[in-house]
């Protein structure tokens, strides 16, 4: 890039759950990822790995529009985990694997379920597609009224989901945790002990509520929604720090990452890789390539040749 201080010797590759990623950026679940064509486009735009939209056992229509709003400091959304169901997603993942495996870009399949038992069932089905990594979404804040709480709210329940998934497959498992808990490190320890190969943190914050003050009604059809984007990044950084201090498995940091400096911040508190979601709306699909260039510029400026020299090096005490 013009004016760049990058050195060709700078290595930003990472190892995640047995896979070598060309760079630490990962497409987060939710923004894109329902079709193999879109996943391939994201990979060509510079992502080091891609995550599908969260998939359920049966098709799910989600909530009525409007489902998402850019409120300035971030996004609020209540999409409702809409997806075509596992049967369709198996075909899309297989097609994505055919296109991305030759490029060395891992495909992460995100799954969710209504019960602990159903997590095992969907795992058996999704494993037929042979994704490189699984991500168990136990932490969406947008729940139907029949759900009393998300799985991630309880360390024991989170661990039970982890065990159920691990009983069904040898595919490496990431468990996606929520910031809406008293002690996220305790939940991380529980899923790590239960066999999780890594952790994704964090999911959306909330649910939150934004009103249209002219109509006096919520801006989202569902009413409340999960809050994401730059406004939640400080919370995500703290959560990633707490998790990395508590467990020795890799953490994929997500939550408001928009620039290369944001990636550095996540690495400094111990993240192995960094997911990007809402920033696709702010900076376009080329955000992955842009963020990697900014990361390399920072590393060149401060004399870092690889990510290991940054990882976990935050100084939080005087």
Structural overview:
By secondary structure, the chain is an alpha/beta fold. The chain has one domain: Aldolase class I (TIM Barrel). The protein is 32% helix and 17% strand. It contains nine helices and 16 strands. An eight-stranded parallel β-barrel has the order 3-4-7-8-9-10-15-16, surrounded by eight helices. Helix 3 links the parallel strand 7 (107-111) and strand 8 (133-137). Helix 1 (36-44) packs parallel to helix 2 (86-100), helix 3 runs parallel beside helix 4 and helix 4 runs parallel beside helix 5 (184-193).
List the helices and strands and how they pair.
Blueprint (H helix, E strand, L loop, with lengths): L13 E3 L2 E3 L3 E3 L8 H9 L4 E3 L16 E3 L4 E3 L8 H15 L6 E5 L4 H11 L6 E5 L17 H14 L4 E4 L7 H10 L4 E4 L3 E4 L2 E2 L4 E2 L6 E4 L4 H14 L4 E3 L6 H9 L4 E4 L2 H5 L3 H15 L17
Parallel strand pairs: 3-4, 3-16, 4-7, 7-8, 8-9, 9-10, 10-15, 15-16
Antiparallel strand pairs: 1-2, 5-6, 6-14, 11-14, 12-13
Care to give the gist of this entry?
With 318 residues, the protein is of the alpha/beta class. It has helices at residues 36-44, 86-100, 116-126, 155-168, 184-193, 233-246, 260-268, 279-283, 287-301; strands spanning 14-16, 19-21, 25-27, 49-51, 68-70, 75-77, 107-111, 133-137, 173-176, 198-201, 205-208, 211-212, 217-218, 225-228, 251-253, 273-276. Helix 4 (155-168) runs parallel beside helix 5 (184-193).
């Amino acid at each position: 890039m013009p004016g760049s201080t990058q050195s060709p010797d700078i290595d930003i590759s990472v190892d995640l759950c047995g896979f070598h990623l060309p760079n630490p950026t990962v497409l987060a679940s939710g923004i894109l990822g329902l079709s193999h064509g879109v996943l391939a486009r994201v990979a060509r735009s510079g992502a080091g790995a891609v995550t599908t939209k969260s998939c359920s056992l049966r098709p799910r229509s989600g909530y009525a529009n409007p489902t998402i709003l850019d409120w300035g400091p971030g996004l609020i959304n209540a999409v409702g985990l809409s997806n075509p169901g596992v049967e369709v997603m198996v075909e899309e993942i297989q097609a994505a694997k055919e296109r991305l495996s030759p490029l060395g870009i891992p495909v992460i399949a995100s799954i969710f379920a209504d019960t602990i038992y159903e997590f095992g069932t969907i795992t058996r089905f999704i494993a037929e597609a042979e994704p490189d990594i699984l991500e168990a979404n136990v932490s969406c804040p947008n729940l139907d009224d029949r759900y009393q709480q998300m799985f991630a709210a309880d360390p024991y329940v989170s661990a039970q989901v982890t065990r159920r998934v691990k009983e069904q497959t040898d595919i490496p498992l990431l468990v996606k945790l929520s910031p809406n808990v008293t002690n996220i490190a305790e939940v991380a320890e529980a899923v790590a002990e239960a066999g999780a190969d890594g952790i994704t943190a964090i999911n959306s914050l909330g649910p939150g509520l934004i009103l249209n003050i002219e109509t006096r009604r919520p801006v989202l059809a569902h009413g409340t929604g999960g809050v994401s984007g730059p406004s939640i990044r400080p919370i995500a950084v703290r959560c990633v720090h707490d998790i990395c201090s508590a467990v020795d498995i890799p953490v994929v940091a997500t939550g408001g990452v928009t620039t290369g400096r944001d990636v550095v911040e996540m690495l400094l508190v111990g993240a192995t890789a960094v997911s990007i979601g809402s920033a696709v709306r702010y900076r376009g699909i080329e955000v992955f390539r842009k963020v990697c260039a900014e990361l390399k510029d920072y590393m060149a400026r401060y004399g870092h040749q690889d990510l290991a020299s940054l990882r976990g090096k935050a100084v939080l005490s005087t």
